[in-house]
Structure formats: C-alpha cells, structure tokens
Design goal:
Blueprint lengths: L6 E6 L3 E10 L2 E11 L3 E2 L2 E2 L2 H19 L5 E6 L5 E10 L9 H11 L8 E13 L2 E4 L9 E12 H13 L3 E7 H9 L2 H6 L1 E6 L4 E7 L2 E8 L3 H12 L3 H11 L12 E5 L5 E5 H25 L9 E4 L8 H9 L3 E3 L13 H13 L14 E4 L8 E4 L8 H16 L2
Parallel strand pairs: 1-6, 6-11, 12-17, 17-18
Antiparallel strand pairs: 1-2, 2-3, 4-5, 7-10, 8-9, 8-10, 12-13, 13-14, 15-16, 19-20
C-alpha cells in the first residue's frame, strides 16, 4: 500500500466500520477514497463476531476501492476501548561505542529496556511512545543520536491492550484479505490532528461520542495526560426514544437522525415524525418532544464528562473542548456542551470532501498521524499462548513469562525494513 504513495486507515466502530485512504501532497493531506459499512460484529470496541466483522471490513474496502481505482492491500487500525491501558515507562541503557557517540542501536536498546516490566498474562504491549530522552545529566532531549554520553535514558508511555481483543481484530483484518501495518492509539492520533499545537500545550479536552461509548481525552503541555471511557453514546439516545415513542428501534433512529435536536428550544412544534408504534397504531411525535428526550440524555452525558475531568484534578483547559464522533452530528450539541461544561466548545469534522462528517474523525486522524508525522507504527506482536519467552523483571527478582508471537526467522532485508520503520516512528527520517 505505501509503495503506491498512499495509506489506508481503518476505524472499527460498533455502529459502522470506516476506511479512509489518503496521501500527503506538499504538506497537505489529500483524501483519495473512503468506505463505510454497517458493523454488526463489534461491541464497545471489541470484536465479538469475527465473521460479521470480516464481511463489514470487506464491504468498506470494496466501496473505497471503487472510488480509488486500485486495490487496498494494507491498513493502519485505530485501537481504543476499555481494554487499553497507558502507563509511564522508563528505560536505561549504556552507550556502546568506544567514542561514546549515541547511535540508532543505543536508541533501540533503551526503548527495549522500557518493556522489561511485569505485565498481566492477558495483556500485550502495543506500542512504546517516547516523549523525551536524557543523555547523562542533560534532560529534555528530543533526538539523542549523534550526541556524546555514557548513559541514555528514555521517558515515555507504554500502550498495552488485551491479547484477546487484539488477536480478534488482527484475525478479522487478515481474513478480509488485508495486511495489518500497525495499531495507532485512536484518541492520541485524533487529538494530535484535530487540535492545534497551542491548544494541546495549553490544554484541550476531546469528547468522541460513539455508538455505545464516549471517549474523553485530555491533552496538556503537549501530551495526552488523561483518558476515560464513559459507557454512554448515541445508542442510549436512540433507546430513550424507543421507550418514549413506544416504537421499533429503527423508527427511533430515524426520529433522532432526521428530526432530533440537542436543544429543545431550537425545535419546531409543528414539525414531527409520523410512525407506527408497537401496538400497530399510527402516531405522531412533535420535534419538541423528540428533542426534549435527547437534550436530557446529552445534558446528563456532558455533566458526567465534566465531573470526571474535575475529579481527577485536570487544570482549566484554555482550549476548551472538541466534539467529534457520529453522535456529535446532532444539531445544537455544541451549544448544549458549552452551556453544561462552561467552556468554549467546537465541533470537529474533517474538512476534506467525502469525509465531512464527525464520524470520520478518528480514521482521518489516524491517517494524518501516520502521514504527516511519519509515525509509522510497528506491527503489534500478538502472542500465542503456547510460545513463551522469559524476561527478567526490572527489580532483578524472579523471572516471569511474557507471551510472544511465533515469528519466522528475520532476514537481513526484513530487519532493515523494521529498523527503518522504527526510526521513522521516532524521528521522522
């Protein structure tokens, strides 16, 4: 895929699976194609039916390929969900060369040393994201290569996830005929692409309203400092209308998407939705009543978001909040969010033709993250339970077993490709 000069990003959501294909031209992201398909095999970010997920991925790929005029061979996948854990990590290594000049080998060794830590058996390392290096006593180093020193340290974040969840996603992609290029932390990529550098530095909150969950991410001083998943999303709004209208789920969905507003005061009582209820009776529900139900649920959701952010002691966010996700397309939601959370709020949606909808925000964010920062994430090593490798604990105590994938012997060419990808990831070269 990358050989053709473009990259594909896949967002496996609970309601829909989105695929976006793009390229970088003169520093500007150019969206070449997009594909979207209903998702029936995913539940809150985890694959629960591989066969249904495979069919949905194939359908999204077919739509994108029809517009692209070429075959989609590999994808980067947005990864998020309750199983994802982000923790600080720290690695230390001695500089190997006699002249004490730091090389690529030292950088790789210090990153590998950060992974020598205890992990639950059911968890797997997805990625290590360096934030800074220390060379001897000099802190805050961005790229240590070429510097002189005796001791190299790395400070960063380790992203881990459930082996079961990651394995199911990988198998679904492989069975759909695609190659998994790597996982990208969805909320990190989205924040880095949707917010400006100043906003990320001064503080901004990202509220991604999905089908069954809402992901809250806080960026401050140039880094992702807090992430939380609220188990409320667009599906809950639809189900509220099911009970209010006493109708089928699909009718409630139409009422929400075609007549619903996030603020009752914006609704028109003369407008409304005609439908047949569960009892077989023809009924009419005015837009004001539909919007009243939606406003109550959304107001509760934003109140929970605000309480959670305040509870963890996040400083005031000078950049306010960014709203995205499929359910964020509801008219009036930006005004309601500003009213509830007491800070400026804006709706983010990609600006490229074909993906101008908040639901594509994560897929486009991954695309930007990969293309514009050269952050080509290494392939996740998904483990088989019958293959284990022993790794010493950082304290020098008893050794523990960490599952590893059964990998074939790496050729010199493959090693160089993987090495080059790591250097792209760290330094963009």
């Amino acid at each position: 895929m990358e050989a053709n000069g473009y990259v594909a990003a896949l967002d496996i959501g609970t309601s829909e699976i989105k695929l976006v294909v793009g390229e970088l031209l003169g520093g500007t992201l150019n969206i070449l194609a997009e594909g979207c398909a209903p998702s029936a095999g995913v539940k809150r970010g985890a694959v629960v039916d591989i066969d249904k997920t495979v069919q949905a991925i194939k359908q999204a790929v077919e739509h994108a390929e029809a517009a692209l005029g070429d075959q989609v061979r590999s994808v980067y996948v947005a990864i998020e969900g309750e199983h994802i854990q982000i923790a600080p990590c720290h690695g230390i290594a001695s500089v190997k060369r006699e002249d004490q000049e730091i090389t690529d080998v030292d950088v790789i060794e210090v990153i590998n040393s950060a992974q020598v830590m205890r992990l639950p058996d059911e968890m797997s390392v997805i990625d290590v994201i360096p934030t800074s290096f220390t060379v001897d006593q000099q802190t805050g180093v961005v790229d240590p290569r070429g510097m002189l020193g005796y001791r190299l340290e790395m400070h960063g974040k380790m992203v881990t996830g459930s082996k079961t969840v990651l394995h199911s996603i990988r198998r679904s992609i492989e069975r759909a005929g695609l190659t998994l290029e790597g996982f990208v932390l969805g909320n990190l990529a989205l924040g880095m692409s949707a917010a400006s550098v100043d906003e990320i530095d001064l503080g901004i909150g990202l509220v991604d309203i999905g089908h069954e969950k809402t992901t809250v991410s806080v960026f401050y001083r140039g880094d992702l400092v807090y992430s939380y998943i609220l188990p409320v999303g667009g599906d809950h709004m639809t189900r509220d209308l099911v009970y209010k209208l006493n109708c089928k789920y699909q009718d409630a969905k139409v009422a929400k998407e075609e007549y619903g507003l996030a603020l009752e005061e914006m609704a028109d009582a003369s407008e409304g939705f005609s439908f047949t209820n569960i009892n077989g009776e023809v009924a009419f529900e005015p837009q004001t009543e539909i919007s009243y139900v939606l406003e109550a649920r959304i107001e509760e959701m934003f109140t929970l978001v605000l309480n959670r952010v305040q509870k963890v002691g996040v400083p005031p966010l000078s950049g306010g909040y960014l709203l995205c996700g499929g359910a964020a397309a509801l008219p009036g939601i930006q005004e309601l969010a500003t009213r509830v959370m007491g800070q400026k709020t804006r709706l983010y949606q990609p600006s490229s033709i074909g993906v101008r909808h908040p639901k594509y925000a994560t897929a486009v964010g991954v695309l930007k993250y990969v293309l514009m920062s050269d952050h080509h994430v290494s392939k996740s090593q998904l483990e088989k339970p019958d293959e284990r490798v022993t790794v010493p604990t950082p304290t020098g105590g008893t050794e523990r077993d960490i599952d590893r994938d059964d990998e074939p012997e790496t050729t010199e060419r493959e090693s160089k490709n993987g090495f080059g990808r790591l250097m792209e990831k760290l330094f963009g070269v």
